[in-house]
């Protein structure tokens, strides 16, 4: 165990002798910026959210459909953290028919399910949250492709699984030191 010296400066003495400090960072995640992007898989398909069907899947999309943006234009909320080693903490939201939906994970029996719930992404997250993913480069030699690890279950990543004609968005366990192309996602600016 090692001790670390941290110099702090007291700012004021408040009611009930509470001492207030300046320039201390808390462990809460604080929203730093929002990126507006579309997400593509290795087949160049776009991630499309259909809240009415409780479904998010990668689909072939025409340029005209992409411009309309129905369920495809994501806001990627980037959070500032005091522990950056896990990756950049992000949350996803999307607009569909003038309503905002955020991505979250929920346990259903033995399986983790991706859901999109109506509502806004919070500006601050004081503790653990089922909406946070860690953005990481897909491989060390690929700076434009990413994978997203679920913050509450290490080793679980966003991926797609083929179900009939759909490539459904899922959470998938990645064995250590393996590369899984179904987890590879690229982010493209919305023009």
Summarize this structure briefly:
Helices cover 3% and strands 54% of the residues.
Give the helix/strand class: mainly beta
Number of strands: 15
Cross-sheet strand order for the largest sheet: 3-6-7-11-12-15
> Based on the structure, what is the oligomeric state of the protein chains?
single chain
Strand content: over 45%
Pick out the low-confidence regions: none
Number of helices: 1
SSE order in H/E notation? EEEEEHEEEEEEEEEE
Largest sheet: 6 strands, antiparallel, barrel
Global outline: globular
Mean pLDDT over the full residue set: 84
Q: Percent of residues in helical segments? A: under 10%
Spatial extent as radius of gyration: 19 Å
How is this structure best described in words?
With 191 residues, the protein is mainly beta.
